[in-house]
Amino acid sequence: MIDNINWYPGHMKKTRELIQNNMKMVDAVIEVIDARIPVSSRNPIIDELVSSKPRIIAINKSDLADENANRAWKQKLTSKPDDAKAGETQAVIMNSLTGEGTKQLFSSFEKKAAERTGSSAIKPYRLMIVGVPNCGKSSLINRLTGHKSAKTGDRPGVTKGKQWLTLENGMQLLDTPGILWPKFEDPKAGVNLAFCGSIKDEILDVPTLAMELIKVLTDRYPELLLERYKLDELLGEGDESPETGYPIETDTDAALANMHQMALKRGCILPGKRIDYERMGRLLLDEFRSAKIGRITLEWPEGGDD
Ligand SMILES: Nc1nc2c(ncn2[C@@H]2O[C@H](COP(=O)(O)OP(=O)(O)OP(=O)(O)O)[C@@H](O)[C@H]2O)c(=O)[nH]1
Ligand SMILES: [Mg+2]
């Protein structure tokens, strides 16, 4: 898990080398991303690492994301025939828990495997999975192997050499995923990853993180917020703040005011009638992460985002 890893430069270098070495042994790569944050859950290093190999981008956790966005991202991330890039990229809308997308994933690879010629054509077609923490790599490995043997089990140092899992169609999958480091250098990506539970909530304290999420949701999905928290309206600039009684001046004031309204509806109230922002914040983050608020995508392809 991310909280056990220090992504200091030395570690990044080691991880890169590890993935690079594994990459040499495979015919193609599955890059797993989080459908809710397809920009923040990618690491640009992957383009360099995968280089000319065929790649499938698994837009995972698609069940939690906006269906329109999933479709738009699938189109955007699938390389066109005239793309100058050496490697071909296909995008698949994926749900690792139900297996949605698996068929399409395999059919792309089967096509690729059939195109091979010479000695490589008689070897099993080999795949590996890469992605940032928590995007669903292990779930996908389990799904692809039918929950058979996707254990890495042994302690480090005990396992000698690579272990390959044989899939039903005869392809082989590397048993350990390549874990890419998240984009810590981009604060916006850090916040998005925190919203989705991919990095510890400590990046911001819970109420602050929740207020940031309220800002984004007020902007993009106001109707879902109104419905989920049974609010009559979302407060904005010029409205009176229930917290201070003064007019709301900034989007932060507005987020606080709306969180106040939500907390009242949910009974997140401390003795002395004070608002329990901590509990409300946690509740909001939990409900976002489990898509109880609705299917939400925080990053859209160009034109639809920001
Ligand atoms: N709703 C939904 N949840 C998913 C999906 N894929 C994975 N998850 C959940 O996301 C969480 C992380 O999944 P993992 O498979 O452990 O992710 P990982 O990439 O292996 O994570 P690390 O090993 O920490 O890097 C788990 O709670 C999974 O149940 C999906 O397609 N939809
Ligand atoms: Mg894992």
Characterise this structure.
The strands form two sheets. Strands 1, 2, 3, 4, 5, 6 and 7 form a seven-stranded mixed beta sheet that branches. The chain has helices at residues 9-24, 45-50, 67-77, 102-115, 137-144, 187-195, 206-220, 222-228, 251-266, 277-289, and strands at 28-34, 55-60, 89-93, 126-131, 164-166, 172-174, 178-179, 269-270, 274-275. 38% of the residues lie in helices and 12% in strands. The protein is an alpha/beta fold and 306 residues long. The protein folds into two domains: 2-179, 3-Layer(aba) Sandwich (Rossmann fold); 204-289, Conserved Hypothetical Protein Ylqf, Chain: A, domain 2 (Orthogonal Bundle), CATH 1.10.1580.10. The protein binds guanosine-5'-triphosphate (GTP) and magnesium ion.
| CATH homologous superfamily caption of the largest domain | P-loop containing nucleotide triphosphate hydrolases
User: Given the helix and strand composition, which structural class is it?
Assistant: alpha/beta
Ligands = guanosine-5'-triphosphate, magnesium ion
CATH class descriptor of the largest domain: Alpha Beta
The CATH architecture assignment of the largest domain turns out to be 3-Layer(aba) Sandwich
Total helix count? 10
Question: Quick one: overall form?
Answer: elongated
Q: How large is the radius of gyration?
A: 22 Å
CATH topology of the largest domain: Rossmann fold
Q: What's the number of domains?
A: 2
Report the count of strand segments.
9
Poorly predicted regions are 150-158
> What is the H/E string?
HEHEHEHEHEEEHHHHEEH
Amount of helix: 25-40%
Quote the beta fraction. Answer: 5-15%
Distance between the termini: 30 Å
Main sheet: strands, sense, barrel: 7 strands, mixed
Q: Could you tell me the mean pLDDT?
A: 88
Note the quaternary state here.
single chain
